């Protein structure tokens, strides 16, 4: 898929420009990876905060997110379509377009998938099951060997 590029035919100034672009790409990708890591850490924290642990006593019918007791007539809770947990009214987020709702964890999970682009690969995997499992290579992964060899060539000249 990746095409071999010969750096020997390039002038030194062209090699330096390519190196700067590749190093900048590496920096941008590391910043993006850090942003994604923070989003996923926040999501994991929400999941952990809302989970019912076996060490504590919970009422049979309580909100899966905040553990508030759910009533028989008022604030009975409802089942989230995303995770099938009972959640109270405070732990729901209404989606603007459809006026449907999701629990806070499912809503944040949806946001993380949107912000990271994971939704695209999930949908592609559903549509094309054999192709969808393979992620495309990152630009820096494809050119990393070339970057190192170009840097070596620049240093030699």
UniProtKB/TrEMBL annotation:
> Can the keyword Cytoplasm be found in this entry's annotation?
yes
Instruction: Tell me the compartments it is located in.
Output: Cytoplasm, Perinuclear region
Give Gene Ontology CC terms.
cortical actin cytoskeleton; perinuclear region of cytoplasm
Biological process terms in GO annotation: intracellular protein transport
Pfam families hit by this protein: FYVE_2 (PF02318)
KW Cytoplasm (keyword) present: yes
One example GO MF annotation? small GTPase binding
Q: Could you tell me what this protein is called?
A: RabBD domain-containing protein
């Amino acid at each position: 898929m990746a095409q071999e590029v010969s750096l020997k035919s390039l002038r030194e100034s062209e090699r330096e420009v390519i190196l700067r672009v590749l190093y900048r790409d590496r920096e941008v990708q590391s910043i993006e990876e850090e942003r994604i890591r923070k989003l996923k850490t926040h999501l994991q924290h929400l999941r952990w905060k809302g989970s019912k642990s076996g060490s504590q006593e919970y009422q049979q019918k309580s909100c899966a997110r905040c553990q508030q007791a759910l009533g028989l007539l008022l604030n009975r809770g409802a089942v989230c379509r995303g995770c099938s947990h009972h959640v109270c009214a405070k732990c729901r987020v209404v989606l603007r377009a459809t006026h449907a709702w999701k629990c806070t964890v499912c809503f944040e999970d949806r946001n993380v998938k949107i912000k990271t682009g994971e939704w695209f690969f999930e949908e592609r995997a559903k549509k094309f099951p054999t192709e969808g499992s393979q992620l495309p290579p990152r630009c820096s992964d494809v050119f990393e060997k070339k970057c190192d060899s170009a840097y070596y060539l620049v240093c030699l000249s």
